Amino acid sequence: MEQPQHGTAPLQEYLTDLVIPHQRCNVNIIPDHITMLHGTKSKKQNSKKRRAHKSQTLSRREYASLGLNTLPTRQMSYEQALPLHKLWRGYIREHLNLKEGDQVPQIHEPRYEEFSKLLVKMDFHGAKLKVIQSKCETLVGIAGICVMDTKNVLKLLGTDHRLRTVPKSECVFGMHVGNMEFTIFGQHLNIRPAERSVKKIKGFIEPFM
Amino acid sequence: MTKNKRKGLITQNSVCSRMNYLYQASQLMAESHHNILAAYYGKLCRNVGTKAQIHIAPAVKRTLCRRCSLPLIPGVNSTLQMEEQRREPKRKVEESEESTLKAKSKKRRRYRPRRRKGSKPPIDTDHQKIVTDDTYGSLQLQCHLCQSQRRFVMDTRQPKECWIEHEDAIDHVVTLDKEKQPQQEQK
Protein backbone atom coordinates (compact mmCIF):
# COMPACT_ATOMS: atom_id res chain seq x y z
CA MET A 1 0.00 0.00 0.00
CA GLU A 2 1.26 3.44 -0.77
CA GLN A 3 1.44 6.08 1.84
CA PRO A 4 1.16 9.84 1.32
CA GLN A 5 4.50 11.63 1.02
CA HIS A 6 4.69 13.07 4.50
CA GLY A 7 4.83 9.56 5.91
CA THR A 8 8.00 8.70 3.98
CA ALA A 9 10.19 11.54 5.27
CA PRO A 10 11.54 9.70 8.33
CA LEU A 11 12.20 6.68 6.12
CA GLN A 12 14.27 8.69 3.65
CA GLU A 13 16.30 10.07 6.50
CA TYR A 14 16.87 6.60 7.86
CA LEU A 15 18.00 5.26 4.49
CA THR A 16 20.46 8.07 3.89
CA ASP A 17 21.92 7.49 7.33
CA LEU A 18 22.84 3.97 6.31
CA VAL A 19 25.07 5.15 3.45
CA ILE A 20 28.73 6.11 4.01
CA PRO A 21 28.89 9.84 4.88
CA HIS A 22 30.90 11.06 1.85
CA GLN A 23 28.50 9.43 -0.60
CA ARG A 24 25.32 10.67 0.99
CA CYS A 25 24.94 13.54 -1.46
CA ASN A 26 24.58 11.01 -4.29
CA VAL A 27 21.61 9.32 -2.75
CA ASN A 28 18.43 10.08 -4.58
CA ILE A 29 15.23 8.59 -3.31
CA ILE A 30 12.12 8.93 -5.37
CA PRO A 31 9.13 8.94 -3.05
CA ASP A 32 6.89 7.31 -5.64
CA HIS A 33 9.05 4.23 -5.60
CA ILE A 34 8.62 3.65 -1.92
CA THR A 35 6.00 1.13 -1.01
CA MET A 36 5.07 0.99 2.60
CA LEU A 37 2.97 -1.49 4.45
CA HIS A 38 0.83 -0.60 7.36
CA GLY A 39 1.88 -1.64 10.83
CA THR A 40 1.58 -5.20 12.06
CA LYS A 41 -1.96 -4.68 13.28
CA SER A 42 -4.79 -3.93 10.90
CA LYS A 43 -7.16 -1.06 11.53
CA LYS A 44 -9.92 -3.41 12.45
CA GLN A 45 -7.95 -5.00 15.23
CA ASN A 46 -6.98 -1.66 16.65
CA SER A 47 -10.52 -0.35 16.79
CA LYS A 48 -11.73 -3.52 18.46
CA LYS A 49 -9.12 -3.24 21.15
CA ARG A 50 -9.95 0.37 21.86
CA ARG A 51 -13.63 -0.36 22.17
CA ALA A 52 -13.01 -3.20 24.56
CA HIS A 53 -10.85 -0.97 26.67
CA LYS A 54 -13.47 1.73 26.86
CA SER A 55 -16.12 -0.45 28.42
CA GLN A 56 -13.83 -1.52 31.24
CA THR A 57 -13.32 0.17 34.57
CA LEU A 58 -13.12 3.92 35.00
CA SER A 59 -9.76 5.62 34.95
CA ARG A 60 -8.83 7.89 37.86
CA ARG A 61 -9.44 10.99 35.77
CA GLU A 62 -12.88 9.84 34.66
CA TYR A 63 -13.63 8.85 38.23
CA ALA A 64 -12.78 12.33 39.46
CA SER A 65 -14.67 14.05 36.64
CA LEU A 66 -17.83 12.20 37.66
CA GLY A 67 -17.42 13.82 41.05
CA LEU A 68 -16.96 10.60 42.93
CA ASN A 69 -14.09 11.83 45.04
CA THR A 70 -15.97 14.75 46.50
CA LEU A 71 -19.09 14.86 48.59
CA PRO A 72 -21.36 17.89 48.76
CA THR A 73 -21.26 19.61 52.16
CA ARG A 74 -24.97 20.02 52.77
CA GLN A 75 -26.83 17.38 50.88
CA MET A 76 -27.23 14.55 53.29
CA SER A 77 -29.21 14.93 56.45
CA TYR A 78 -28.23 13.34 59.74
CA GLU A 79 -31.37 11.20 59.77
CA GLN A 80 -30.39 9.59 56.50
CA ALA A 81 -27.11 8.44 58.00
CA LEU A 82 -28.76 6.85 61.04
CA PRO A 83 -29.62 3.55 59.30
CA LEU A 84 -25.94 3.33 58.34
CA HIS A 85 -24.98 3.72 61.99
CA LYS A 86 -27.47 1.04 62.95
CA LEU A 87 -25.93 -1.29 60.39
CA TRP A 88 -22.49 -0.45 61.70
CA ARG A 89 -23.45 -1.39 65.26
CA GLY A 90 -24.39 -4.83 64.05
CA TYR A 91 -21.16 -5.09 62.13
CA ILE A 92 -18.93 -4.10 65.05
CA ARG A 93 -20.67 -6.62 67.29
CA GLU A 94 -19.87 -9.30 64.77
CA HIS A 95 -16.36 -8.06 64.11
CA LEU A 96 -15.20 -7.88 67.73
CA ASN A 97 -17.15 -10.99 68.82
CA LEU A 98 -18.99 -9.01 71.46
CA LYS A 99 -21.71 -10.32 73.70
CA GLU A 100 -24.00 -8.45 76.05
CA GLY A 101 -22.17 -7.01 79.04
CA ASP A 102 -18.69 -7.64 77.68
CA GLN A 103 -15.91 -5.55 79.11
CA VAL A 104 -12.80 -4.26 77.42
CA PRO A 105 -10.03 -6.79 78.15
CA GLN A 106 -7.33 -5.48 80.47
CA ILE A 107 -3.75 -5.31 79.33
CA HIS A 108 -2.68 -8.38 81.34
CA GLU A 109 -5.41 -10.57 79.88
CA PRO A 110 -4.39 -12.99 77.12
CA ARG A 111 -6.99 -11.84 74.62
CA TYR A 112 -5.94 -8.20 74.88
CA GLU A 113 -3.53 -8.37 71.99
CA GLU A 114 -5.94 -10.10 69.67
CA PHE A 115 -8.68 -7.67 70.58
CA SER A 116 -6.57 -4.61 69.93
CA LYS A 117 -5.51 -5.99 66.56
CA LEU A 118 -9.13 -6.47 65.61
CA LEU A 119 -9.85 -2.96 66.76
CA VAL A 120 -7.33 -1.45 64.37
CA LYS A 121 -8.72 -3.43 61.46
CA MET A 122 -12.31 -2.39 61.89
CA ASP A 123 -14.22 -0.24 59.47
CA PHE A 124 -15.07 3.32 60.45
CA HIS A 125 -17.86 4.03 57.97
CA GLY A 126 -20.98 4.57 60.00
CA ALA A 127 -19.32 4.98 63.40
CA LYS A 128 -20.25 7.83 65.70
CA LEU A 129 -17.01 9.61 66.45
CA LYS A 130 -16.11 12.63 68.53
CA VAL A 131 -12.88 14.59 68.53
CA ILE A 132 -11.64 14.59 72.13
CA GLN A 133 -8.26 16.16 71.78
CA SER A 134 -6.42 17.84 68.98
CA LYS A 135 -3.44 19.99 68.17
CA CYS A 136 -5.86 22.35 66.50
CA GLU A 137 -8.28 23.67 69.10
CA THR A 138 -11.13 24.43 66.74
CA LEU A 139 -11.44 20.76 65.83
CA VAL A 140 -12.08 19.71 69.43
CA GLY A 141 -15.72 18.85 70.03
CA ILE A 142 -16.70 18.02 66.47
CA ALA A 143 -18.93 14.96 66.55
CA GLY A 144 -20.83 12.99 63.97
CA ILE A 145 -21.25 9.85 61.93
CA CYS A 146 -18.24 8.99 59.84
CA VAL A 147 -19.28 8.83 56.20
CA MET A 148 -16.04 8.75 54.29
CA ASP A 149 -12.61 7.51 55.27
CA THR A 150 -9.53 8.31 53.23
CA LYS A 151 -5.85 8.04 53.97
CA ASN A 152 -5.48 11.34 55.79
CA VAL A 153 -8.98 12.52 56.47
CA LEU A 154 -12.28 11.51 58.01
CA LYS A 155 -15.54 13.06 56.91
CA LEU A 156 -18.00 13.44 59.76
CA LEU A 157 -21.68 14.22 59.27
CA GLY A 158 -22.81 16.31 62.22
CA THR A 159 -26.27 16.67 63.72
CA ASP A 160 -26.61 20.04 61.96
CA HIS A 161 -26.63 18.18 58.60
CA ARG A 162 -23.20 19.44 57.69
CA LEU A 163 -20.29 17.41 56.47
CA ARG A 164 -16.98 18.24 58.13
CA THR A 165 -13.53 17.14 57.14
CA VAL A 166 -11.24 16.22 60.02
CA PRO A 167 -7.57 15.33 59.57
CA LYS A 168 -6.68 12.08 61.27
CA SER A 169 -3.09 12.70 62.21
CA GLU A 170 -3.77 15.64 64.53
CA CYS A 171 -6.71 14.27 66.45
CA VAL A 172 -7.74 11.81 69.11
CA PHE A 173 -11.18 10.33 68.59
CA GLY A 174 -13.64 8.91 71.06
CA MET A 175 -16.08 6.14 70.22
CA HIS A 176 -18.83 4.24 72.04
CA VAL A 177 -19.78 0.64 71.43
CA GLY A 178 -22.50 -0.50 73.80
CA ASN A 179 -21.10 0.13 77.27
CA MET A 180 -17.52 0.23 76.07
CA GLU A 181 -15.61 3.36 75.38
CA PHE A 182 -12.65 3.62 73.07
CA THR A 183 -10.04 6.27 72.52
CA ILE A 184 -8.50 6.15 69.09
CA PHE A 185 -5.29 7.91 68.21
CA GLY A 186 -5.83 9.08 64.68
CA GLN A 187 -2.12 9.11 63.96
CA HIS A 188 -2.08 5.36 63.64
CA LEU A 189 -5.01 5.24 61.25
CA ASN A 190 -3.09 6.92 58.46
CA ILE A 191 -3.44 3.96 56.14
CA ARG A 192 -5.74 3.66 53.18
CA PRO A 193 -8.99 2.06 54.31
CA ALA A 194 -8.71 -0.79 51.82
CA GLU A 195 -5.22 -1.66 52.99
CA ARG A 196 -5.88 -1.42 56.68
CA SER A 197 -7.58 -4.79 56.94
CA VAL A 198 -4.56 -6.52 55.39
CA LYS A 199 -1.64 -4.58 56.81
CA LYS A 200 0.45 -6.06 59.58
CA ILE A 201 0.46 -4.02 62.73
CA LYS A 202 3.28 -3.67 65.20
CA GLY A 203 2.60 -4.80 68.74
CA PHE A 204 3.57 -1.65 70.56
CA ILE A 205 2.57 1.74 69.35
CA GLU A 206 3.16 4.78 71.52
CA PRO A 207 0.54 7.46 71.85
CA PHE A 208 1.81 10.82 70.67
CA MET A 209 0.53 13.41 73.09
CA MET B 1 1.48 -24.95 60.67
CA THR B 2 -1.91 -25.33 62.26
CA LYS B 3 -1.41 -22.12 64.15
CA ASN B 4 -0.70 -20.30 60.92
CA LYS B 5 -3.78 -21.71 59.30
CA ARG B 6 -5.95 -20.68 62.20
CA LYS B 7 -4.49 -17.21 62.16
CA GLY B 8 -5.20 -16.96 58.45
CA LEU B 9 -8.76 -18.01 59.01
CA ILE B 10 -9.32 -15.35 61.63
CA THR B 11 -8.05 -12.55 59.41
CA GLN B 12 -10.10 -13.88 56.52
CA ASN B 13 -13.17 -13.85 58.69
CA SER B 14 -12.72 -10.26 59.71
CA VAL B 15 -12.11 -9.21 56.12
CA CYS B 16 -15.20 -11.10 54.99
CA SER B 17 -17.40 -9.45 57.60
CA ARG B 18 -16.01 -6.09 56.60
CA MET B 19 -16.74 -6.67 52.92
CA ASN B 20 -20.20 -7.87 53.79
CA TYR B 21 -20.83 -4.74 55.82
CA LEU B 22 -19.56 -2.49 53.03
CA TYR B 23 -21.75 -4.20 50.46
CA GLN B 24 -24.80 -3.82 52.66
CA ALA B 25 -23.93 -0.18 53.29
CA SER B 26 -23.65 0.48 49.57
CA GLN B 27 -27.04 -1.15 48.97
CA LEU B 28 -28.52 0.99 51.75
CA MET B 29 -27.09 4.19 50.29
CA ALA B 30 -28.25 3.28 46.79
CA GLU B 31 -31.78 2.80 48.05
CA SER B 32 -31.77 6.23 49.66
CA HIS B 33 -30.47 7.85 46.43
CA HIS B 34 -26.96 8.71 47.58
CA ASN B 35 -25.27 7.42 44.49
CA ILE B 36 -21.83 8.81 45.15
CA LEU B 37 -21.58 7.25 48.60
CA ALA B 38 -23.02 4.00 47.30
CA ALA B 39 -20.41 3.85 44.55
CA TYR B 40 -17.69 4.70 47.08
CA TYR B 41 -18.69 1.86 49.39
CA GLY B 42 -19.01 -0.55 46.48
CA LYS B 43 -15.58 0.38 45.23
CA LEU B 44 -14.10 0.00 48.71
CA CYS B 45 -15.72 -3.40 49.07
CA ARG B 46 -14.08 -4.46 45.85
CA ASN B 47 -10.72 -3.01 46.82
CA VAL B 48 -10.70 -4.75 50.18
CA GLY B 49 -11.42 -7.97 48.34
CA THR B 50 -8.56 -7.47 45.91
CA LYS B 51 -6.12 -6.54 48.69
CA ALA B 52 -6.98 -9.57 50.78
CA GLN B 53 -7.28 -11.82 47.70
CA ILE B 54 -10.82 -12.89 48.37
CA HIS B 55 -13.22 -13.60 45.54
CA ILE B 56 -16.64 -12.09 45.67
CA ALA B 57 -19.32 -14.56 44.61
CA PRO B 58 -20.07 -13.90 40.92
CA ALA B 59 -23.77 -13.35 41.48
CA VAL B 60 -23.00 -10.67 44.07
CA LYS B 61 -20.24 -9.17 41.99
CA ARG B 62 -22.57 -8.72 39.03
CA THR B 63 -24.95 -6.58 41.02
CA LEU B 64 -22.26 -3.91 41.19
CA CYS B 65 -21.72 -1.74 38.12
CA ARG B 66 -18.65 -2.82 36.24
CA ARG B 67 -17.34 0.69 35.76
CA CYS B 68 -18.27 2.65 38.87
CA SER B 69 -19.25 -0.21 41.23
CA LEU B 70 -22.60 1.29 42.04
CA PRO B 71 -25.07 -1.40 43.08
CA LEU B 72 -27.54 -1.42 40.22
CA ILE B 73 -31.19 -1.44 41.20
CA PRO B 74 -33.41 -1.14 38.11
CA GLY B 75 -35.80 1.77 38.47
CA VAL B 76 -33.84 3.45 41.24
CA ASN B 77 -30.42 4.16 39.81
CA SER B 78 -30.48 2.30 36.50
CA THR B 79 -32.85 1.79 33.60
CA LEU B 80 -33.76 -1.58 32.20
CA GLN B 81 -35.22 -1.60 28.72
CA MET B 82 -35.63 -3.65 25.59
CA GLU B 83 -33.29 -2.64 22.84
CA GLU B 84 -34.54 -2.05 19.33
CA GLN B 85 -33.26 -4.65 16.93
CA ARG B 86 -31.16 -4.12 13.89
CA ARG B 87 -32.63 -6.73 11.59
CA GLU B 88 -30.95 -6.32 8.25
CA PRO B 89 -27.39 -7.27 9.04
CA LYS B 90 -28.63 -10.34 10.84
CA ARG B 91 -30.54 -11.54 7.76
CA LYS B 92 -27.44 -11.29 5.63
CA VAL B 93 -25.56 -13.50 8.00
CA GLU B 94 -28.29 -16.06 7.81
CA GLU B 95 -28.32 -16.20 4.02
CA SER B 96 -24.63 -16.82 3.90
CA GLU B 97 -24.96 -19.26 6.70
CA GLU B 98 -26.55 -21.97 4.61
CA SER B 99 -23.77 -21.92 2.06
CA THR B 100 -20.98 -21.97 4.61
CA LEU B 101 -22.70 -23.79 7.36
CA LYS B 102 -19.67 -25.75 8.42
CA ALA B 103 -17.48 -22.73 8.77
CA LYS B 104 -20.01 -20.76 10.71
CA SER B 105 -21.24 -23.56 12.90
CA LYS B 106 -19.11 -22.39 15.79
CA LYS B 107 -20.44 -18.90 15.60
CA ARG B 108 -24.01 -20.04 15.40
CA ARG B 109 -23.81 -22.18 18.43
CA ARG B 110 -23.30 -19.18 20.60
CA TYR B 111 -26.74 -17.84 19.75
CA ARG B 112 -28.59 -21.08 20.08
CA PRO B 113 -30.88 -21.12 23.07
CA ARG B 114 -30.27 -23.69 25.73
CA ARG B 115 -33.14 -26.04 25.97
CA ARG B 116 -34.80 -25.94 29.31
CA LYS B 117 -36.76 -28.75 30.76
CA GLY B 118 -40.14 -27.09 30.40
CA SER B 119 -39.80 -25.89 26.83
CA LYS B 120 -40.96 -27.93 23.88
CA PRO B 121 -38.40 -29.25 21.42
CA PRO B 122 -38.36 -27.33 18.12
CA ILE B 123 -40.64 -28.92 15.54
CA ASP B 124 -38.95 -28.09 12.30
CA THR B 125 -35.38 -26.97 11.73
CA ASP B 126 -36.26 -24.92 8.65
CA HIS B 127 -39.06 -23.25 10.47
CA GLN B 128 -36.74 -22.43 13.29
CA LYS B 129 -34.31 -20.74 10.98
CA ILE B 130 -36.95 -18.35 9.79
CA VAL B 131 -38.07 -17.60 13.29
CA THR B 132 -34.60 -17.00 14.72
CA ASP B 133 -34.55 -13.54 13.29
CA ASP B 134 -37.27 -12.19 15.51
CA THR B 135 -36.81 -14.31 18.56
CA TYR B 136 -33.84 -12.61 20.11
CA GLY B 137 -34.22 -9.27 21.72
CA SER B 138 -31.65 -7.79 23.96
CA LEU B 139 -32.17 -6.26 27.34
CA GLN B 140 -30.17 -3.19 28.19
CA LEU B 141 -29.23 -2.11 31.66
CA GLN B 142 -27.84 1.40 31.93
CA CYS B 143 -26.18 2.82 35.00
CA HIS B 144 -27.29 6.39 35.76
CA LEU B 145 -24.04 7.43 37.35
CA CYS B 146 -21.44 6.51 34.74
CA GLN B 147 -23.73 5.75 31.74
CA SER B 148 -22.23 2.35 31.18
CA GLN B 149 -24.43 -0.24 29.55
CA ARG B 150 -24.80 -3.95 29.89
CA ARG B 151 -26.61 -6.08 27.36
CA PHE B 152 -28.29 -9.38 27.91
CA VAL B 153 -29.45 -11.50 25.00
CA MET B 154 -32.95 -12.65 25.70
CA ASP B 155 -35.08 -15.25 24.05
CA THR B 156 -38.49 -13.75 23.45
CA ARG B 157 -39.91 -16.97 22.04
CA GLN B 158 -39.79 -18.63 25.41
CA PRO B 159 -42.81 -18.11 27.59
CA LYS B 160 -42.32 -14.82 29.34
CA GLU B 161 -42.32 -16.08 32.81
CA CYS B 162 -39.91 -15.57 35.63
CA TRP B 163 -38.56 -18.61 37.37
CA ILE B 164 -40.40 -17.71 40.53
CA GLU B 165 -43.68 -17.60 38.63
CA HIS B 166 -43.04 -21.02 37.18
CA GLU B 167 -44.97 -23.95 38.57
CA ASP B 168 -41.89 -26.01 39.34
CA ALA B 169 -40.47 -23.29 41.51
CA ILE B 170 -43.10 -23.65 44.20
CA ASP B 171 -42.04 -26.26 46.68
CA HIS B 172 -44.84 -25.84 49.16
CA VAL B 173 -47.22 -23.10 50.17
CA VAL B 174 -47.27 -21.78 53.70
CA THR B 175 -50.26 -19.82 54.87
CA LEU B 176 -49.98 -17.55 57.86
CA ASP B 177 -53.10 -17.43 59.99
CA LYS B 178 -52.72 -13.96 61.46
CA GLU B 179 -52.23 -11.92 58.36
CA LYS B 180 -53.71 -14.40 55.94
CA GLN B 181 -51.04 -13.81 53.38
CA PRO B 182 -49.95 -16.71 51.23
CA GLN B 183 -46.22 -17.06 51.19
CA GLN B 184 -44.41 -18.98 48.56
CA GLU B 185 -41.15 -20.62 49.17
CA GLN B 186 -38.57 -21.26 46.57
CA LYS B 187 -37.00 -24.56 45.99
Question: Which key phrases capture this entry?
Answer:
heterodimer, A: 209 residues, alpha+beta, SH3 type barrels, six-stranded antiparallel β-sheet, B: alpha+beta, two-stranded antiparallel ribbon, 6 helices, 46% helix, disordered C terminus
Strand order of the largest sheet of chain B: 1-2-3
CATH architecture descriptor name of the largest domain in chain A? Roll
Instruction: Give the overall shape of chain B, derived from the CA principal axes.
Output: globular
Radius of gyration of chain B: 23 Å
Please give the domain count of chain B. Answer: 2
Which class do the helix and strand fractions of chain A yield?
alpha+beta
Q: Number of domains in the coordinates of chain A?
A: 2
The main β sheet of chain B shows up as: 3 strands, antiparallel
Number of helices of chain B: 6
Order of helices and strands of chain B: HHHEHHHEEEE
Uncertain ranges of chain B: 90-108, 119-133, 181-187
Oligomer: heterodimer
CATH class bucket of the largest domain in chain A: Mainly Beta
Total strands of chain B: the figure is: 5
User: Which range best describes the helical content of chain A: under 10%, 10-25%, 25-40%, 40-55%, 55-70% or over 70%?
Assistant: 25-40%
Radius of gyration of chain A: 31 Å
Mean pLDDT of chain B: 71
Query: In terms of structural class, how would the helical and strand content of chain B be classed?
Result: alpha+beta
GO molecular function (chain A): ribonuclease P RNA binding
Protein name (chain A): Ribonuclease P protein subunit p29
GO cellular component, one term (chain A): ribonuclease P complex
Main location (chain A): nucleus
